[in-house]
Amino acid sequence: MIPSSGNLASRAGSPTVELVDRLDPLSEDWARLAAAGGNLFGTWEWNELWWRHYGRGRRLRVAVLRREEEIDAIVPLFLWSGPPVRTLRLIGHGHGDHLGPICRREDTGAAARALRLALAAEPHDVFVGDWVAGDRDWARVLGGRVVRTTGYPILRLREESWDEFLAARSQRFRKTLRNRRNRLEREHEVSFRYADAATLETDLDAVFRLHRARFREHPGCNFCGDHEPFQREFARLALERGWLRLLLLEVGGEPVCCEYGFLFENAYFAYQGGRDPDWDRASVGFLLEVDSMRRTLEEGALEYRFLGGEEDYKYRLPTEDPRLETIVAPASGRGRVASAALAAAWRLPGGQALLRRVGSA
Predict the structure, then answer these.
(1) pTM
(2) How far is CA 43 from the centre of its chain?
(3) Which long-range contacts (CB under 8 A, 24 or more apart) does 48-55 make?
């Protein structure tokens, strides 16, 4: 039996929701639903690890949607703040994109039912949904409002071979790729390689060094600094599961650029990167990104997800952008005041920085 501290029942044959305050009993069903949903940030491993690192004594309120004996969806909620404003949020916020109910990808009805029933089952003032799917219209579904948006570009990999992929690109793209790679290899000893079990820790050292070199000190980063232990532990787990794709471009045996991502259920998640600015003129970032696409295509993946953000490089090739949204949905008078305050803060000078701090774990 799954321990539960709440149950919201419907008519016979309709879904019911249990509120659960432990993660372990759900691990098998969670893994099944995450695989069916095709989202790395919906995996048991990501959510359980995030909770261990960032739960900090808060109260889990994971909602389990059942239809008869089958679990149709899991909503990984927790009570982020107590009175005077009881705030529910999703596990994984700040570090993951495309959060929300964990269920079969095509079952949008189950996702909507699960989140509505989950919020109805737990007394709260406001729900903050960080970086939920922008094409699901969650604000309307929950009677809330959108407080921030960003891009979520996806490249569909429809070609059967790398040659076909290149043939579908512009002549300018092909010429630029060929010339820049030929020049780099003509002038230097160049290699591309994935991290493996023997090199992982040393390669992660390079990743964080190159990330800092590329971005310097940047407030609100959920990858480096205090968050490095979480990222390292997940990299080890992802390697064990066969998901990790840590690709390095080396010149003369030294890493000068890295692409830190994951391949999960036929989709590649380009999570983070870094490079030595001294090599920017050699276009090492562009060359590594294209080599990552080649490897992803050759492994049979169907999607290359650039994840949240609107940087120019993410839009060189994508075929679609379903967007991401952060929404707030009030459930009380206090919640309505809090929702209005968050929406107003986003429009004020410094408001975006404030919301990033609120969004940090």
Answers:
(1) 0.92
(2) 11
(3) 48/23, 49/230, 49/233, 49/234, 49/237, 50/91, 50/92, 50/95, 50/96, 50/230, 50/361, 51/23, 51/78, 51/91, 53/229, 53/230, 53/233, 53/361, 54/94, 54/230, 54/361
10 Å Cβ neighbour count for 47? 24
| Distance (Å, whole) CA 120 – CA 179 | 58
- Tokens matching residue 316: 């060189």
Tally of CB atoms within 10 A around 278: 10
Is 166 in contact with 140 (CB distance < 8 Å)? Answer: no
CB 60, CB 48: distance < 8 Å: no
Tokens standing for residue 52? 């261990």
What pairing do the DSSP bridges indicate for beta strands 303-305 and 267-275? parallel
Decide: 162 and 298 in contact? Cβ < 8 Å: yes
Average pLDDT of the residues of the chain: 91
Q: Are 29 and 44 in contact (CB under 8 A)?
A: no
pLDDT in tens, 302-342: 999 999 999 999 999 988 999 999 999 999 999 999 899 88
Give the pLDDT mean for 268-282: 96
CA proximity to 114, closest of 132, 94, 87: 132
- In this prediction, residues 199-220 reach a mean pLDDT of 90
CA distance 230 to 257: 22
Question: pLDDT, tens digit, for every residue of 137-166?
Answer: 999 999 999 998 999 999 999 888 999 999
Q: Is 302:156 a contact under the CB 8 Å cutoff?
A: yes
The DSSP output letter for 310 is -
Cis amide prior to 84 (ω within 30 degrees): yes
**For residue 14, what pLDDT is reported?**
78
Output the pLDDT for position 1: 35
CB 227, CB 95: distance < 8 Å = yes
